[in-house]
Amino acid sequence: PRGGGGGRGGGGGRILVQGKNFGLTDSNPVAFVGPTRCEATSWTDDAAVTCVTPQWTAGPVVVPVSVEVYGQKSQETPQAVFQFGSAKAATITALAWTRAPTDGGFTITIFGTLFGEAGAKALVSRPPGAGPPAPCRRTRWVSESKVLCTAPPGVGAHLPVTVRSKVGPAASSFGSVSFDYDAPEVTSISRSYGAIGGGMRLTVTGFGFGTERTPVAGVIGDTDCTRSAWVSDSSLSCTTPPGQGKRDPVRVRVGGQLSPLRRG
């Protein structure tokens, strides 16, 4: 089984855990929040169970959610988590429109609680090591439970979104509530052959490489280029690594996302 779900609370709430291999018939699965069994677990179908969360008094914390079926327990993943927290803390519970091209511009609707008054600011995180969160091009506070964000340019996937109100602590999304930029795509390369010792200069063309100077890597077969340099959102240069073989795929990795296989 593979668990997937998340939420906030102090226990006693009902959450939906989605995944697969929970059983084609009711096999009495048991869901866990952290190390503790849910107060009640109800099988829905092979892809979903519901859990009444256990009580928690130890303070705010994020814990993994898992499901056990016939002695097999799902693996912990960053997307399958639950956050116990204070009822007085701001929370982000859902995003509407969770993907955008690397130049941004699309509107993300952020739902949650206790976003305060007009003047809140929303931000989209960057991939690890790529710098602080990027402010939305425009943030529009709608209500205490809804904020609109015009996505900034960026790269990467599974990025948390944050709302900073004028009063009170910031709220950040977690688990499966996250934002993705489109993965890079390769459309052509400047040459389709090179010396087995490497060292050849290759220009890779495509889109989704990032609209600002971004750490990128060209990949030939399974090997990173000896040197990769970002040129633009649609171009990068690659110094080929040593290797041999025919028709090795050429791909690009940006913000942790690897372009789909494409033969050069």
UniProtKB/TrEMBL annotation:
CDD domains: IPT_PCSR. Gene3D superfamilies: Immunoglobulins. SMART domains: IPT (SM00429). Residues 233-242 have a biased composition (Polar residues). The keyword Signal applies. This is IPT/TIG domain-containing protein. Pfam families: TIG. Residues 233-264 are annotated as: Disordered. Signal peptide: none annotated. PANTHER family: FIBROCYSTIN-L ISOFORM 2 PRECURSOR-RELATED (PTHR46769:SF2), POLYCYSTIC KIDNEY AND HEPATIC DISEASE 1 (AUTOSOMAL RECESSIVE)-LIKE 1 (PTHR46769). The keyword Signal applies. Residues 8-85, 89-182, 183-263 form the IPT/TIG domain. InterPro entries: Fibrocystin, Ig-like_fold, Ig_E-set, IPT_dom. Keywords: Signal. It comes from the Eukaryota.
